[in-house]
Amino acid sequence: MDSPDTEWDDVRLHVVTGKGGTGKTTVAAALALALAAGGRKVLLVEVEGRQGIAQIFDLPPLPYEERKIAVAPSGGDVYALAIDPEEAMLEYMEMFYGMRRAGRALTKMGIVDFATTVAPGFRDVLVTGKTTEAVRRRGRNGRRVYDAVVLDAPPTGRIARFLNVTQEVAGLAKVGPIKNHSELVNGVVKSRETMVHFVTLLEEMPVQETLDGVAELRSAGLPPGCVFINMVRESLLPQAALDMAVKGRFDVGELALGLKAAGLADTSDAAAMAEALAEEVVEHARRTELERAERESLADAGLPRLELPLLADGVDLAGLYELADTIRTHRGAA
Predict the structure, then answer these.
(1) CA separation for the pair 186, 190 (Å, rounded)
(2) Same domain (yes/no): 249, 189
(3) Distance CA 84, CA 86 (A)
(4) Residues 6 or more apart from 109 whose CB is under 8 A from it?
(5) pLDDT at 334 over 50
(6) Beta-carbon neighbour count of residue 9 at 10 Å?
């Protein structure tokens, strides 16, 4: 298995995307915990309004403010921010035009909905702008406020446009605050400080969407990072048995003898039980073979890959920390 390398040390914005149902938000949360381990401070951002971070960490819905939500392994803090486009627009208007009060009146009139209808990419500009501001922000001591920012981004199908929209807006606005703001955002997104990570399953559709997303990012000049292969199930049988099952050479009679010898079945029902188990073995072997093929397809993308286990008890806080530990281990973290 390939794993992320030391190039991550220079990355400050980790964008996490994936097809729906692949566990994108879970992986983003685990990555934030892993990056914060050892005394670092990480901000975990969500932009889709689903309150997925709150659900994963078993918290009430998050307000539009940065607040501490977890302590990472070996110390370190994870903060979270659920970006609200209207609040982001108020900040934007105050920052560039000194119009926060007027902005509140405009939001009551539905100006954000109006603006995003006229210019659909405007909402993405607001949320990416808020995220990259957190990446750039420094405290009074001149140091960065956050060691890293993890963005739980939109699904793979629209990630390239989501990240590239500031460049499009900058092209429309030739001068002024909007152009300057867009250029700042674009400067972070396309820099060595940013990586876009993909979350996938070992299934045909998520893998194909991942490969398409990687190609689209590269065409747009955006930086792909790591592929997280989520919910990986360990094979329960040796490879020789799997090969025999796939080829239709699995010995049901031998399995029946084994069941009787182990005291798991008597003579009368050993054959029937062996037949049922053999069907399960063949299905498992075929799935394993398909997963192997999907791994090979992902290898063609030429990106580091990190496999995360299927959590038998589901995704709870303990499972989240288990995934974070897996990420840290394969990054060579202490």
Answers:
(1) 6
(2) no
(3) 6
(4) none
(5) no
(6) 7
Cα separation, 57 vs 235, in Å, equals 30
Strands 77-82 and 67-71: antiparallel
DSSP lists the bridge partners of residue 309 as: 232
Q: How many CB atoms lie within 10 A of CB 49?
A: 11
Task: Round to whole Å and give the CA distance between 212 and 44.
Answer: 26
What are the b/e assignments for 227-265, b being 16+ CB within 10 Å?
bbbbbeeeeeeeeebbebbeeeebeeeebbeebbeeeeb
Higher pLDDT, 286 or 196: 196
Does residue 293 form part of some domain? no
Could you tell me the pTM of the whole model? 0.84
Residue 116 sits in a domain whose CATH number is 3.40.50.300
DSSP E strands, the chain: 13-18, 41-46, 67-71, 77-82, 148-152, 194-200, 224-232, 305-309
Look at residue 296 and tell me if it is in a domain: no
- Please report whether residue 297 resides in a domain: no
- Angle subtended by helix axes 204-219 and 159-172, to nearest 10: 20
Q: How many domains does the chain have?
A: 2
* Same-domain pairing of 246 and 185: no
Task: Find, among 237, 238, 239, 234, the residue nearest to 309 by Cα.
Answer: 234
* SS3 (DSSP) at 69: strand
- What proportion of the chain, given as a percentage, has pLDDT over 70? 78
Residues of the domain holding 147: 6-233+310-330
Structure-block tokens of residue 3: 């794993």
| 196 and 52 both lie in a single domain | yes
Which phi and psi (to 5°) does residue 240 adopt? -60, -40
Task: Report angle CA 142, 147, 153 to the nearest 5 degrees.
Answer: 125
Query: What confidence tens digit (pLDDT) does each residue in 220-267 have?
Result: 999 899 999 999 988 777 777 777 766 766 677 777 777 767 777 676
pLDDT, mean of residues 216-221: 93
